[in-house]
Amino acid sequence: MQSVVSDAVAFADASPEPPANLAKVWEFPTPLDTDYNTIPPPSFAEVVNERTISSDQMKGITEHIEELIAKAKAGEITISEAANLAIHEEMLRDPTTTMQAEDLQAGSSYGIPGMTQQTYGSMRASDEIISEGHFIGKGIGEAMNGYRPIIELMNTNFGIYGMAEIASAGNTYLQSGGQFKLPITILGAGGTAPDQALGAEHSQPLHAYIMGIPGLKIGAAASPEAAYGLTKTMIRDDGPCFLIFPVKMMKDTKGTVDLGKCLPLKAALLHEASAESINSGKAVTVLTYLHGVKESTNTIKELNEKGLDIELIELRSLKPLDMDTIRKSLERTNKLIILDESTRSGGVGASVSSAIAEEMFNLLDAPVMRLSMDDAPVPYASAMEKVVVKRGADLVDGVLKMCDGKV
Questions:
Q1: Which of 71, 82, 94, 155 qualifies as a cystine partner to 227, CB 3.0-4.6 A?
Q2: How far is the C-alpha of 278 from the C-alpha of 61, rounded, in Å?
Q3: CB hemisphere CA count around 404 (13 angstroms)
Q4: Three-state SS at 41
């Protein structure tokens, strides 16, 4: 053993120094400009499915998928159903894909992993104990051994109990010298909606807590279209990904999806300000995500009636950040408000606004306005929560002040 160690040390001493920029180059196993729709499925998929899924199981899941597709075409599919549809399509497409969740047989809290164990069996779809660190760690082990695990959290706040494992997932590709790509997807409902009345423990901005973890791609999906496309994208990514859905919009928000298509990890322009408002200086770029998308959308009519408008951009990728889409809008409006579902200190808005100040300062006619959660626990009582959690009314007030030159 001593000789083996000595040989290894000698090999290391004789090896050249690694490139200075290697850590940044190896941050993500899958390049940022990847078109996930071009990634081919495994050649063995059909054979393995025939071996492992019975005819009755295949009949049941086919009927389930057809029902969801019909809802999608009719514009009636929910966020949770869209995620469930994407998961089944990817599990059939690639038999190395696995599913882990609490209360999985019953579909967990929102139906995201529904019918996975009934279709693929308990080896591929595991009903987990209430220990997030345990089954996130288990997923990491699977990812290091040729599988593509999906981890569903009943509420993403509970990811706090797996922070060490999430951090390890982000660091593994570089620390293993590129030997382990770690294709693990963690997803679930989370965020902090106005008037959600879930109290401090269930209203924490985990998306902000994990922003600093290297190697981790973080997405947010506030519509069925985004939930479906980003779920497929992140499952196909060869690195660790975290996708968050808005907890209070899971079953109420309905729409269509682009069937069979992965979405790029980019921001989405949801509403374009009118030329009249742009020319008169009465338009503001608004960046938001999760419940902020609904809150912002609901302000457009009121703002228009006041002679104002917004360019509404959904940050579907919190990391990496799509600066190009933001820049194009700021070139038109020159004003920016961030409706942020995280705390003022160390939040998403803090990271985004600092990046914009560094790279696009010359495009700003006024300081960036951050409508962030206060640095306080989120109260259960609605009267107290209104002060802590920002909402559409705060956005209307912010746009008025910015366009009147009071910022």
A1: 82
A2: 50
A3: 9
A4: coil
What would the two tokens of residue 35 be?
């078109």
Give strand pairing partners of 186. Answer: 151, 242
Per-residue pLDDT tens over the stretch 352-388: 999 999 999 999 999 999 999 999 888 888 888 888 8
Question: What tokens appear for 83 in the block?
Answer: 């995620």
What are the start-end ranges of the E strands in 61-169? 77-78, 97-102, 125-128, 148-153
Complete DSSP assignment for 318-350: EETT-HHHHHHHHHHH--EEEEEEEESSSSHHH
| Residue 38: partners with Cβ closer than 8 Å, 6 or more residues away | none
Burial class, 197, CB count within 10 angstroms (exposed 0-12 / middle 13-18 / buried 19+) = middle
**23: which strand partners?**
none
Amino acid at 323: M
Tokens at 157, concatenated:
């706040």
Q: In 3D, which of 200, 138, 215 has the Cα closest to residue 170?
A: 215
Neighbours of 328 (CB within 10 A): 14
Q: Of 124, 147, 120, which is closest to residue 42 (Cα–Cα)?
A: 147
Contact 353, 335 (CB under 8 A): no
Q: Cα separation of 117 and 102, whole Å?
A: 12
Q: pTM, whole model, 2 decimals?
A: 0.94
Summary count for the chain: helices (H), strands (E)? 17, 14
Tens-digit pLDDT profile for residues 242-283 = 999 999 999 999 999 999 999 999 999 999 999 999 999 999
Tokens of 18: 């690694």
